[in-house]
Write a structure and sequence with these properties.
By secondary structure, the chain is an alpha/beta fold. It is 41% helix and 17% strand. It contains 24 helices and 19 strands.
């Protein structure tokens, strides 16, 4: 896992632009704390910050292929390719020689052998740039599910690209501006594929290749979710899911650095931890380490709500004991979560503000603690999107609504519905119209089978919306918060083989026992305590300490009372004061808190980040 940057310019000689490339690369230092590399040619420059995970000595980047001692192809690469050993054996049989044991060199030789089609052979999470000096052409490639980020900024004579927007914004010719469309994307909670927040900055879509040459930029999809008949019966489906999970975890345990799991005590992370423990024992590598986040007093004074019926910690402890993991709780307090330094670091790591404040800050602090012991962590992220775990998958009102299900399930979401922004700004933004257009675009992408029943037809759409939109918000959060500490988080449930198989499993089978994630539950039933197998879905935790929300509200009062506050011209002070006068919410997922988080985040972003709103 690393941070990558690059610059292609056909009308200038980049050999003389080392200072600009170095400035861009420096912004990725936290993503890659182990080494820095720069490479410049006449029309292309690559930067790389390395987090060494496989072949610590040999996987130095940018990596070059040479002919007659002259570089022909250069690679700057972030991520992991989990089938690199099989690919290396295949490439050796085709005559390729390897100098290292790294997956980076395998990716480079795969391009040399198979050209632009090589991405279809990769299994993993990755984002990289390939410069082919023979054709004066750049390829930008992103993994199928979008686990690793990759953004780019077309220029008059080429392109800039990087793991994160901050690296592009560090280029002297780029200004950090956000227009109406960028602000809409920031506030809408829909994550439009390919859309960036900063003006001119776009994202490489998951499963796509962007090709840049002297004729311009073109994009090609090499993978996407497609509808296929599912012919397996229920028992075969359950066993196939189990076999896939065992193979996926076995591959993702490969690392030359300490490894752990993130264990919440829910079904998803518990299954990953149990399978990891099993895989390590089979290899004679001892027990697995596991970590969980908790808050001071949360277990003792927990208040159940519609989103979270019970605390995580007792279940995490039970699973740890059951599988024999070396477990540790990372316990946070409200002082940690409201600390201005941490909140600023979170915003800088994320590049944009969010309404999910403590859900980011607590993850940031969890990963900081985990990084003291491990460099790689396996996560249960994305199982809910793959197997249908969210409560609104099973809510007929949300399923049948004419919009994104998660927005229907949270009708009082932060934004225009609550009137927190100035009326003229809300009218100009028209967030409801933006969300509706995004929803129509997503539905138009869905591939269907001709004989699907109306119920199966709709549930395929629901699955597609979550896998291509909602999941991207969560993957971005996990990547930014983990890589801010140089921690690589692997996401086994995002293996494209599993995603394809389960996506095409009929909904009637996915929910065969009337519960969420029925197939996953059955597939790992022999590995987990009965209490975890019976447990209802609980999302990532949010602190219930009233001191936390009181501190947030007081901070927002100070902002509203300050006529010089960066968001002063954007907000509706009377409506905000009305919100702040309401009683505190017991739920950590209440919309008043999320609205306060959003406004404080916007104010911090405009005050501490080099950003200008271009709304005229």
């Amino acid at each position: 896992m690393c941070g990558i940057v690059g610059w292609v310019a056909y009308d200038r000689n980049l050999v003389h632009e080392q200072s600009a490339l170095r400035a861009m690369t420096a912004t990725a230092a936290l993503r890659g704390p182990d080494a820095e590399g720069l490479w410049l040619d006449q029309h292309c420059g690559f930067g790389h910050r390395r987090l060494a995970v496989i072949d610590l000595a040999g996987g130095v980047q940018p990596m070059l292929a040479e002919e007659d001692r002259q570089p022909t192809v250069a690679l700057t690469y972030s991520g992991e390719v989990y089938n690199y050993r099989e690919l290396r054996a295949e490439l050796r049989a085709l005559g390729h020689d390897f100098r290292t044991d790294s997956d980076t060199e395998v990716v480079l030789h795969a391009y040399l052998e198979w050209g632009e089609d090589f991405a279809e052979r990769l299994n993993g999470m990755y984002a990289f740039g390939v410069w082919d000096g023979r054709q004066q052409r750049l390829l930008l490639v992103r993994d199928r599910m979008g686990v690793k980020p990759l953004c780019f900024h077309p220029t008059p004579d080429g392109v800039l690209f990087a793991s994160e927007p901050k690296s592009i914004l560090a280029h002297p010719d780029v200004s950090a501006e956000v227009d109406f469309d960028g602000l809409r994307e920031l506030l809408a909670l829909v994550k439009t594929p390919g859309h960036g927040v900063y003006r001119g900055v776009r994202e490489v879509r998951p499963g796509h290749v962007v090709v840049v040459d002297r004729d311009g930029t073109r994009t090609r999809r090499y993978w996407g979710l497609s509808a296929r008949p599912h012919t397996d019966d229920l028992d075969t489906t359950v066993h196939t899911v189990r076999d896939l999970l065992e193979d996926i975890i076995r591959r993702q345990l490969i690392a030359d650095v300490p490894l752990c799991t993130l264990l919440s005590g829910g079904l998803d992370s518990s299954a990953v931890t149990a399978l990891a423990a099993l895989g390590l024992r089979e290899q004679g590598l001892g027990s697995v380490r596991s970590f969980a986040v908790d808050f001071v007093g949360q277990t003792e004074h927990f208040h159940p709500d519609a989103m979270r019926p019970e605390p995580d910690t007792p279940y995490a402890h039970e699973v740890a004991k059951h599988v024999g993991s070396q477990h540790a709780d990372i316990v946070l307090n409200s002082g940690d979560l409201t600390d201005s330094l941490y909140r600023t670091e979170v915003m800088v790591a994320n590049d944009i503000p969010t309404s999910l404040g403590d859900l980011y800050t607590s993850l940031f602090l969890l990963f900081r603690a985990v990084r003291e012991h491990s460099t790689v962590a396996l996560s249960g992220e994305s199982a809910d999107e793959v197997f249908g775990g969210y409560r609104w998958f099973h809510d007929p009102t949300a399923v049948n609504a004419d919009g994104f299900p998660w927005l229907t399930a949270l009708p009082d979401r932060p934004g225009s519905a609550q009137g927190l922004f100035a009326p003229e700004l809300e009218r100009a933004l028209d967030l409801d119209g933006y969300r509706d257009a995004a929803y129509r675009q997503a539905l138009a992408e869905v591939d269907h089978l001709p004989d699907e029943s109306p119920a199966e037809h709709r549930m395929r759409e629901i699955s597609y919306l979550h896998l291509t939109r909602f999941l991207q918000i969560l993957l971005d959060r996990k990547d930014r918060m983990s890589m801010a500490h140089g921690l690589e988080v692997r996401v086994p449930y995002c293996d494209h083989r599993l995603v394809e198989y389960v996506y095409n499993t009929p909904w009637s089978m996915k929910a065969f026992d009337g519960r969420e994630k029925s197939v996953l539950r059955a597939a790992v039933a022999d590995l987990l305590p009965e209490s975890v197998l019976r447990r209802r879905k609980s999302p990532y935790p949010s602190t219930q300490d009233p001191v936390y929300e009181q501190t947030l509200r007081q901070s927002l009062i100070e902002v509203v009372d300050d006529p010089q506050a960066p968001i002063a011209d954007l907000i509706n002070p009377p409506r905000i004061r009305e919100t702040l006068a309401a009683p505190l919410e017991e739920s950590g997922f209440g919309m008043s808190r999320r609205s306060v988080e959003l406004l404080l985040g916007l104010n911090l972003w405009l005050r501490r980040y080099p950003v200008r709103l271009a709304l005229t």
